[in-house]
Amino acid sequence: MSDDFNMQDAEMADSDDDFDDEEEEEEEDEMNDDEGVAAPAQPEPAAEEDAAIARRRAIQAIVRDTTLSEPEKRQRIQALMSGGRIEVAPPPGPLIPAPDGNSACVHYERNCNIVAPCCNRVFGCRICHDELSPSGHPPMNRFLIREVVCKLCNTRQAAGNCCAHCNAQFGEYHCGMCNLWMSQSKKPFHCNRCGFCRVGGVEAFRHCNECCMCISVTVFDTHQCLKDKYKNNCPVCREDMFSSRQSPQDLPCGHAIHAHCFRKLAGFDYRCPICKKTVVSQQSMAAAWEARARDIAEHPMPPELQRVVDIMCNDCETKSHRMVWHFLGIQCPRCNSFNTVVDQVLSSGNENESEQANATSGSA
Questions:
Q1: Are 189 and 202 in contact (CB under 8 A)?
Q2: Which H or E run contains 73?
Q3: Where are the beta strands (DSSP E) in the chain?
Q4: In the prediction, which pLDDT does 356 show?
Q5: Which of 75, 163, 175, 347 could form a disulfide with 351 if both were Cys (CB 3.0 to 4.6 A apart)?
Q6: Predicted pLDDT at 103
């Protein structure tokens, strides 16, 4: 009863205010008519009063409705007050779409999904999380995973390798430090010096403290050590090579690149993308360079396009002076490589003709 009395008092007070406002508006209209100013057409007082009363009663009904949540009440009241002219925006969706709890993970063979510590969503693995995340969402930190969901019984539980409800084993291999579950087919192992798990078998790799990476035992004794060589991005795909799931490859110059990126690069370029040195052995390139030298000898440049230049060899880092330029390349006289760049143009075709003419007139 007290609520009804309060609402009736509020309704009556609002009605008195409406009548006072209408009287003021009528006085302003009469003043405007007396002054000769055309006043805008006003709705009839009775119709406006009925609409205001109906609107207040509808708002009171929404406020009393206990089945509606506070956001729904605010949206309906706003729609009434705006007269339906303003579209009320729906509530924002979740930051990351929630995949099916039993959705298959294409990256690892396991019987559990993980609960992302950053957004509390369930994903097949950390890579699934990163691939399904919207732009700008940070990658998952594998070391912060604390909960998993069993794929067989859908039980959410603390991270482990055995389901607390159905006793199912989540993975043939489990690392509690990296929160990794996978099969033994790729021979995973944990490297304490790297700080996480790698694949390929612990017997096939040795850790290099200088490179800060596990190196294959087949090339460990001959590989070129470079401080934190693998703690860089691949020069082709720009992915971090230290934590990448793709295997890196050492180039003869000492730089590292993803093996699959190198295969793509070798299809159209034989140089390191960082230092521009030839990544193929000199013996392998000798036949190609001899063939190019023959082409240059058989197709000399016309006089108007001839140039005399200084060059720098990317392979032996030797600078050579007054070399004859050709559009097919300029061969280094020291190592016979065509991996050279023009350092300076000394003269062009017209200048060469002038020099020859001066030399001829001087001798006469």
A1: yes
A2: helix 70-82
A3: 112-115, 122-123, 147-150, 156-158, 173-175, 180-182, 189-191, 196-198, 205-208, 213-216, 248-250, 256-258, 308-313, 319-324, 340-347
A4: 52
A5: 347
A6: 58
Q: Where are the beta strands (DSSP E) in 109-171?
A: 112-115, 122-123, 147-150, 156-158
d(CA 203, CA 213): 15
Which residues in 99-127 are b (16+ Cβ under 10 Å) and which e? beeeeebeebbbbbbbbbeebebbbbbbb
Average confidence (pLDDT) over 328-344: 91
pLDDT above 90 for 115: yes
Backbone angles phi, psi at 146, to 5 degrees: -125, -15
Ranked by mean pLDDT, the top range of 35-39, 72-76, 141-145 is: 141-145
Q: Would you tell me the crossing angle of helices 45-64 and 2-35 to the nearest 10 degrees?
A: 150
Q: Is the pLDDT of residue 105 over 50?
A: yes
pLDDT of residue 215: 87
| Inter-CA distances, 95 with 66, 91, 283, Å | 30, 12, 56
Query: Residue holding tokens 């405007």?
Result: 32
Give the span between the Cα atoms of 130 and 274, in whole angstroms: 28
Question: What is d(CA 271, CA 99) in angstroms, rounded to the nearest whole number?
Answer: 44
DSSP helix/strand/coil, 20: helix
Task: Specify the pTM.
Answer: 0.54
- List, as one string, the DSSP characters of 212-262: TEEEETTTTTTSPP-TTTTSSB-TTT--BSSS-SSPEEE-TTS-EEEHHHH
Half-sphere exposure of 187 (CA within 13 A, CB side): 6
* Mean pLDDT along residues 325-344: 91
Average confidence (pLDDT) over 267-272: 86
What interhelical angle do 45-64 and 70-82 show, nearest 10?
Answer: 170
Radius of gyration of the chain (CA): 39
- Distance CA(93)–CA(111), nearest Å, equals 29
